[in-house]
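Researcher: Good morning. I'm working through a list of sequences from a screen, and I'd like to move beyond sequence-only analysis. For each chain I'm collecting a predicted structure so we can compare shapes side by side. This is the next one on the list. No need for commentary yet; just the structure.
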Amino acid sequence: PKGGFCGSVLPPNLRLRLENLLNLVRRGALEYTRRGVIAAHDVVQACNTALMLMYTNALDLRNVFDVFRLIVDTESEMALDVDVHHPTIAQKKEFSEYRRQVEILRGLLAENKNNLESYQNLLAYQAKCSEIALSAVAGEKPLIEAPVEKSTEKKVANINDWEGVKAMPQPKPQMELEGLTWVLVDEIEILNKESEDKHLFAIKEAKDSYRSRQKLKYPDGTTVEDTGRAHVDGYSEFKCMNIVPGRPVVVVRRMDYVYGDYELEMGINGKKVGIISCVGTDRVHRWRNWPALVPAEHVTETSLMFRQQSVTAGRDINMFHIWVYQPK
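Model: Good morning. C-alpha cells for this chain:
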C-alpha cells in the first residue's frame, strides 16, 4: 500500500475566510442575474461548485488557485457581457473599477505563486472586487425579479441588504434594497456647528477625543475628503429627526476603516437595542459607510436619541458623516 493525502489541510481560519468570500462573490453575481446579465449565472455556478468542494473537505492550497482561475474567468466574461449588453451599469465608475480589479486578479493568478502569501492576497483582492461589484448595482431596482406569491406580510428589513451601500462614495437620497425603498430622512455633517447643535451631537465619558480631516478612497477608487471626530472608549450620541414611528431606521456612519474589528453597543432613547459589529479593516481603501439597524419596535417617537458606546476597549471610534434612512 502507498500513503497519500486525504482531505484538506487548510487551517480553520483560512477555510472560514474562503467560505465567506465565496458566498460574497455568489451574492454579488446573483444581483447581476436579477438585472438580466446572463454571464453572471456562470459566476454563481462556479461559486456553487467551489463551495461544494469546500464542504466535502477537498479544497486547500494544492488546488484552490486552479478553482479561482475558473471563477475569475467567469467574472471576466460577466464584465464583458455587461459592457456589451448593459450600458447603464457599464458606464458607472464603480464598474470600471470592477473590471480593473478582475484584471489584477488574473495577473495575480498568472504568477503561479501557489503559496500562503499569494492565497491571502487572492482573498483580499477578490473581496475588494466583490464589494465593488455590489456597489455598482446598489440602490438600483432589479430588471428581473423572481415571482413571489402575494402576501399581506411586509418585507422585513435586514442589515445584510446594506452590504453594497458600505462602498458607495455618496449614498443616494432614495435606494431600492432587496424589495424595500429606503428614503433619506435626516443627515448630520460632523464638525459643522449648526448641524451638530441641531442634532444635539456630543461625545461623553471618553478617555480621549479628537478632530480629524481625511482624504481617503472608497473601494471603487473614488477619493473623498471629509472632516470628522473620533473618541477612545466612552460614547457618542445624537438626535435623529423626521422619523415615522413604527418603521425601522438605518443609521449609516462614514468611517475610516483602517480602525476596524470592534463592537459598539447601540442605544435608542436610553434603552439598549443591540450590538454593532465593525468586522475587518482596509489599509488602502479606507472609507466605508457602516450601517446600524434600529428595529421597528424601538421606533416609537418622531425623533430618536441614538447612542453608540464603545464595547471593545482602547479602540478609536470615528465618524465623518451620518445618514438616516427609513423605508417608504
